[in-house]
Specification:
With about 325 residues, the protein is mostly beta strands. The two termini are about 20 Å apart. The protein has helices at about 5, 260-265, 305-310, and strands at about 10, 20, 30-40, 40-50, 55-65, 70, 90-100, 105-115, 115-125, 130-140, 140-145, 155-160, 175-180, 185-190, 205, 210-215, 215-225, 230-240, 250, 275-280, 285-290, 295-300. The longest helix has 10 residues, at about 305-310.
């Protein structure tokens, strides 16, 4: 594959952004960071919507082709309920969706913004209309979490990103295991943030849920770097062993996607590309990402091209 011929591996949809707050059927500040799933033959986005108080909730959008013609529900699918779930007092954010065939349901792992800081919470659904809350599964401060769709040696696995209160300790990507989706242990660092001038130095986090391929579990992660003009979020790739997800087979030495377009560079948080969902269909990956915490955008790439790029750019 000739890099000069294809340019960047991901191709941005020319009609970006695909959804903005102007498209919502009710008043809101912004819509971004959507989880994605293929449901009943359609693409479903579980979108983070921030209201004009600054509190986020989730609303569903559907499309027949996953590109345009989005139909947005008239009211939120999941709204914070601090009366029953006090961990949601300041909102719910950044959903990541995984279908658990063994449980016959969709698992939505999200960030609940509690009084003690952000933490990882879990809900399940069969129709994205009714949700069963399972409450917090990991304490604060922790976020950027998603489940694998299968068990490993009888245990579920989850990737997440805890943050230490010690400023000298980097924010790394961890993996943990559970027999029942409630009690988590065997915690260990999966990917450590690099140091120094690297694009992913000091703070990294998972982007969409792990994607199963014949070569391993493909994961996309974001790395941050603080510049004189502020923080910039870029995206890289890694590959995990299919049987042992704690074993990292490859990790990109450079970023694969970075803010470049106006809708990625300017918004409530400038210079941010933040995906929470992707869908693989007919060999093509559709990546849904938040642009500058203001809108939802789409980029596509062939899976084979992503895996080849990772082989060529692995450190």
């Amino acid at each position: 594959m000739d890099r000069a011929e294809i340019g960047e591996v991901f191709e941005r949809y020319p009609g970006n952004p695909i959804i903005s707050s102007d498209d919502l059927p009710y008043l809101a500040n912004s819509v971004f960071n959507a989880g994605a799933a293929k449901v009943d033959g359609e693409t479903l986005l579980l979108m983070r919507v921030e209201d004009r108080r600054g509190i986020s909730h989730f609303t569903v959008a559907r499309s027949a082709n996953g590109i345009d013609g989005w139909r947005i529900d008239p009211k939120p699918a999941l709204f914070p309920s601090p009366e029953t779930n006090p961990e949601e007092i300041y909102g719910i954010e950044d959903p990541r969706i995984t279908y658990l065939a063994e449980e016959n349901c969709w698992a939505v792992v999200f960030t609940a913004f509690s009084a003690g800081g952000p933490l990882v919470a879990l809900a399940t659904t069969t129709d994205f209309k009714e949700f069963k809350r399972h409450g917090p599964v990991l304490p604060p401060e922790d976020k950027d979490a998603a489940l694998f769709p299968v068990r490993f040696n009888g245990r579920w696995a989850m990737i997440h990103r805890p943050v230490s209160t010690f400023p000298s300790i980097s924010a790394d990507i961890w993996i943990s295991f559970s027999p029942d989706l409630k009690h988590w242990g065997d915690h260990r660092v999966l990917l450590a943030a690099r140091k120094g001038a690297w694009w992913d130095a000091n703070k990294i986090g998972l982007s969409p849920p792990p994607l199963q391929t014949d070569q391993g579990w493909l994961i996309m992660y974001h790395g941050t770097r603080t510049m004189s003009s502020g923080c910039i979020y870029r995206l890289g790739l890694a590959l995990l062993d299919l049987e042992d997800p704690t074993r990292v087979l490859a990790r990109s030495s450079q970023w694969i996607l970075a803010p470049r377009q106006p809708y990625e560079l300017f918004g409530d948080v400038d210079k941010v590309i933040f995906p929470c969902g992707w869908i693989l269909e007919d060999g093509v990956v559709r990546l849904y990402y938040g642009g500058a915490d203001r809108c939802i955008a789409l980029a596509t790439a062939k899976l084979d091209d992503l895996l080849e790029w990772l082989r060529e750019n692995s450190s």
